[in-house]
Amino acid sequence: EKGGYDHYMFKEIQEQPVSLAQTIEGRVEDGLDLSPETLAGVDSVQFVACGTSYHAALYGAHQLRSWGVEATASLASEYSVYPPPMEDALVVGVTQSGETADTLDALSVAGDRGATRLAVTNVVGSTAARESDDTVFIRAGPEIGVAATKTFSSQVVTLYLLAREVASVVTDPPAAAALDGMDELPDAVETVLDGSRAARLADEYLGEDGHFFLGRGNGVPVAMEGALKFKEITYEHAEGFPAGELKHGPLALVTEKTPVFAVCTGRDAGKIESAIREVQTRGAPVVAIAPRTMTDIVEVADDALTVPAVHPDLTPILTNVQLQLLAYHAASSLGRSIDKPRNLAKSVTVE
Ligand code: M6R
């Protein structure tokens, strides 16, 4: 049932060309089939989500803002503490399982305040799907490993398509959008899946004092997701944050014992390059995760995990697959319980 692999997580990473093709199928041409009321009168989007789904939500908010649409991503558990004004906002709950208590609670708070709620989920018949005004299924297929992998990729693609639809109602998304390249994405993921380099670097760059994942723009959700995946299954300390925050605190922890993984998604390469130099000066070994065409970044780093050059809006998916492989191989070398990490459950149904 694990398709000949040792772990569901690895199987699910390898499945991504197929799961992404399922997510995309028919939707570039025909859209997400939202009900006509869902976007009526909408002027902004508020995403609510937890964990990996929150990172996908951050990506969605970033994409919408890049097209001039007001959008926020909130951790569901915090959203309910002081709910923001949400008149004319579309509240989008992003939840793989559709059963995460904090996300359901945030959606119910939004419902009580009269907002339109859209669930973006993987599970047909889930509570989020049943209790929201409208639902988009990410169509990734069942995910058994506690660590979310293929569902993150499918969430990101779905939120890109959703952002495009919202932007076409609220503003005008630019003509040079990534839609044309969408159909090539599964093949691009396939080329990343070889993963032998990620396996080697996972051993070489295991830090004694922790691991930092940096990004900028739409690379920030990837850095945060890379760190979450790494800590979740290796039990090693990892932190992911925007590169610009380095000198506001984290730099104090950077030494030769804290490898840095610098995510570059194709924009703002200069800023990532200067962050790389900054941590190298403190002795930290750096792995760049970047399109292979970004030779400046690849050359300045000590090592690199490269990905095919696709539209910069879609590069986050490819760079994230490299970080999935990195986390998997590090956890595998350490002999961890990869599919069921200690203290964690696939679906968190308590607040
Ligand atoms: O089912 P959900 O997407 O609502 O789950 C949210 C988080 O519990 C989940 O993404 C968690 O962070 C993953 N185990 C991370 O790999």
UniProtKB/TrEMBL annotation:
It comes from the Archaea. It catalyses: D-fructose 6-phosphate + L-glutamine = D-glucosamine 6-phosphate + L-glutamate. GO terms for cellular component: cytoplasm. One of its GO terms (molecular function) is carbohydrate derivative binding. It is found in: Cytoplasm. Residues 34-172, 201-341 form the SIS domain. The keyword Repeat applies. The keyword Cytoplasm applies. It is an enzyme of class 2 (transferase). GO terms for biological process: carbohydrate metabolic process; fructose 6-phosphate metabolic process; protein N-linked glycosylation; UDP-N-acetylglucosamine metabolic process. The active site is at K346 (for fru-6p isomerization activity). Its EC number is 2.6.1.16. Keywords: Aminotransferase, Cytoplasm, Glutamine amidotransferase, Repeat, Transferase. Catalyzes the first step in hexosamine metabolism, converting fructose-6P into glucosamine-6P using glutamine as a nitrogen source. Homodimer. This is Glutamine--fructose-6-phosphate aminotransferase [isomerizing]. It comes from Halococcoides cellulosivorans. The chain holds residues 245 to 595 of 595 of the full protein.
